[in-house]
Amino acid sequence: MYDVIFLGNQLKEPSLTTLQVDPEALLSCRGRVGDFSLRYRDNGQVREEKTLALVANLDYEHEAGLAGFPTFIEDTQIPEEGNLIFIQDYGQLAPAHINRMGLEKALAAAKGSSSRQVYYFYRSLRFTEGTDDIYEEARQAGVAFFRYEEGKLKVEEPGHLTYNRGGTSMELEGQVLTAPLLSPSPHLEKLARILRLNPSEEGYLQEENVYLAPTLTGRRGVYALGGARNPNSLGGFEEEACYTLEEIAALKNDLQPLVEDEREVDDKKCILCYTCYRVCPHAALEENEEQDAMEVLQEACWGCNGCISHCPAVAISIVGEEEEEKKPGLQVLMCENSAVTARKKLPKNIMDGFISREISCACSLKKEDIYAYLEDSADRVLILGCFEESCKHLEGEQRGQRIVDEVNETLKSLDLGEERVRFERLSPPMEADMKKLLGRWREGQL
Amino acid sequence: MSKIAVIGGGIAGTTVAVELARAGNEVTLIEKADTLGGNILDYGCKAVDKCIKCNLCLVDETVLEAQNSEAIEVIVQGQVRDLTGAPGSYCLTLETGGHLQEITDLDSIVLATGFLRWSDLETGTPEFSSDNRVIWASQLEESMKNRMDHGESADILQLGYNPRSVAFIQCNGSRSIQEKARYCSKICCGYSYRMARVLKHFYPDLEVTIFFIDFQEAGYFLDINFDELDQAGIKYINCKPIDVSAVDDRLRILYENQQEGQMEDLEADLLVLSEGLHPNEDNERWSMLFNLQQDRYGFLYPLLPEEETGIFLAGSIKGPRDIASTISDGKRVAYRLLRAGKKQLCESGGQGHV
């Protein structure tokens, strides 16, 4: 049993037991935080190891920013003699650490030799902690900085460059080093599949979501670092590595479930259709082979209830929770991650005239429940959920909207009215918006 | 179980307090204002048709938890007057509502008193302070706090007039030697970018221009990029304006078009000044009271290892930080405090290899 298995580069941490596994050799990952079970190939044999947490820590892929020229990356040896020309040819903003790396290299080159000139051409600079000082020092050490607009810098042959700007033009000789263009490691696709993570649009392991800062993923106990996370790591790698290792140390010290209520699969009802396995955004369900049924891994569960509402066999339930009493005329459903917090900041009478219910996530909505509310004399139903990027359960917003759309479509096709169900997005600081929203919903103006 | 006092009830302070309380410690949270929250109380969610990750929502729950947790005693309107004792048995003297009060037997103290806004400094008055068309970012925020868009034609700006064109000036109050703030404040780029997008969402016809020096990496998840600004119809000009004057009923902003190498004008009827973060006025006093060092700008850093002294610093008392980094810093401080005395974690952090 290890504390951390690093997929990719290993970090040294004396108080944690660590192991490195090549992402290419990874075969499967089962289990949950505190008890992951990893199978991988090692010298032609299949090995299995257990670990508390997993960290995907990979390098970025990179190619030259300007075709045909060497890039400056951490391993690049800077020539000791001759003029140097750094070119940061990013149309958009460069990732801050590339910027920092370029400045550090330029500074070291300028300091290392007094007989050479170091030029730094850029279209935009991006700064992060400490970069200001390096920039300042580089200027003092004699690095000449030039900003250029797209197309205004010509590098016609290796070592020869023409620069034009505002009537100034110059020609320079020197060795050109360009800033690298980054892309996700090719291993990430496979890792995302095996670790059951939802990758970002660009293919990095971390989805764009406010709850996942800085290195968390949707699966508890799995972290994305460096080139596995995102090209724009703010605080730099070291800060994020420390944060991650300290999180793992805290888990090692005391691993508690995230939610109090337990979810349970009834093994007599479960038909092993794997719907919950596919639906769960946190990879908290797995097949229990002994019982021939799915099983909720409590430590991995974030409590969204998505599995409960999606299970076609109605096999999953919250332990000890009694069948919810149907409230006639229910009108407002509020997500506990946004609307419920916002409502707490409003006067108590704000819900007067409404019958409301708290839900764990918009992904826990069930069509039949909404029909039941509408049948029970509610004229219309308002669902207050979260914005996509701030949905704690990653996909709840999309799922909620889809269910609402489907219900409205069905009602319309049966001539039972239009737009009777509405999905609105809120965040916890939006209590003023919530107040107005409720006011207008009450008056039928939405 | 340890007894810990956290000074400052903003993002960093509440995050540390909640983490420590969850780990079973007895925490006293001291806030000088009437309520917890600090700077976030003045800001509103920036979501438009989608979330643009201002991270404000992450703080709300923490503040509520700090308020309601049984393990956290919250003292509002409390001012720290004195510190006596040694690590493991510190004694803080507080003044609350004219009365002095002592908190004894403290194992550790966390200082999280945050920053000062540029507009709160006396020297920070803009030249056009009398012109109501030149406003601070926080004033824009205030005028937009009750914004709402659900199909209604929103009167969001609530300025008393409807501007046709808005300009933002970045690096105001930071990256300036005259203002003794050569550093970058780290939050304003992201703030103006989000605000510009909010304005563009509610007023599609509004002309929005952002003057900037360098765009900063402004948040764990904010990926400002020029293409996106272009698509949103937001103009960006790489220059800190040279002069602002009132001409007829509009503001004229003089700047250098660096591409062409010449001076140009931009007319606007609303000018929003970003607000740099500055060290708190209390920092000097803290440095003496808690044996800390001020850096050349006035932010604090510890003289001795925090694990030894039991005095920890969290959040923007150490230097400018945005919401996401403040939260992660708060958590890190809490973990470090819990593990104080044990071997330091992560001696060799490896490298973010490219």
Give a verbal description of the structure.
The complex is a heterodimer of chains A (about 450) and B (about 350). Chain A is an alpha/beta fold. Chain A folds into four domains: about 1-60 and about 185-255, FAD/NAD(P)-binding domain (3-Layer(bba) Sandwich); about 60-180, FAD/NAD(P)-binding domain; about 265-320, 2-Layer Sandwich (Alpha-Beta Plaits), CATH 3.30.70; about 330-440. Chain A is about 25% helix and about 25% strand. The model of chain A has no long low-confidence stretch (mean pLDDT about 90). Chain B has about 350 residues and is of the alpha/beta class. Chain B folds into two domains: about 5-115 and about 280-340, FAD/NAD(P)-binding domain (3-Layer(bba) Sandwich), CATH 3.50.50; about 115-275, FAD/NAD(P)-binding domain. Chain B contains eight helices and 20 strands. Chain B has helices at about 10-20, 55-70, 135-145, 190-200, 225-230, 285-290, 305-310, 325-340; strands spanning about 5, 25-30, 70-75, 80-85, 90-95, 100-105, 110, 115, 135, 165-170, 205-210, 235-240, 245, 250-255, 260-270, 270-275, 275-280, 290-295, 300, 310-315. In chain B, the strands form six sheets. A five-stranded parallel β-sheet of chain B has the order 3-2-1-7-20. In chain B, strands 9-16-10-11-12 form a five-stranded parallel β-sheet. In chain B, strands 4-5-6 form a three-stranded antiparallel β-sheet, with no helix packed on it. In chain B, β4 and β5 (about 90-95) form a beta hairpin. The longest helix of chain B is centred in the C-terminal third of the chain and has 16 residues, at about 325-340. The two termini of chain B are about 45 Å apart. At the A-B interface, α1, α4 and α10 of A face α2 and α8 of B.
